[in-house]
Amino acid sequence: MNRFAELLDRLAYEPGRNNKIRLLVAYFRETADPDRGYALAALTGALSFKHAKPGLIRDLITERTDPVLFGYSYDYVGDLSETVALMWPKSFSAHQNESFLGHPSPHPSPARGEGAQPACSPHNDVEGIDVSEGRSTGQAPSPLAGEGWGEGYHGQDRSEIPHTHNNPPPPTLTDVITTLRTLGKAELPAQLARWLDELDETGRWALLKLVTGAMRIGISARLAKTAAAALGDKDPHEIELMWPGLSPPYLDLFAWLEGRGDKPVNSDPTPFRPVMLAHAIEDTDFANLDAADFSAEWKWDGIRVQAVAGRDTRGHIQARLYSRTGEDITGSFPDLVPSLHLPGAIDGELLVLRDGRVQTFNVLQQRLNRKVVSPKLIKEFPIHLRAYDLLGDDENDLRELPFTERRAHLEAFVAKLGDPRIDLSPTVPFANWEDLAAARADPRSAGAGDDADAVEGVMLKRRDAPYLPGRPKGPWWKWKRDPHVIDAVLMYAQRGHGKRSSYYSDYTFGVWTRGDAGDELVPVGKAYFGFTDEELLQIDRFVRRNTTEKFGPVRHVVHEPDLGLVLEVAFEGLQRSPRHKSGVAMRFPRISRLRWDKPPREADRLETLERMLISMTGS
Question: pTM for this structure?
Answer without folding.
Answer: 0.69
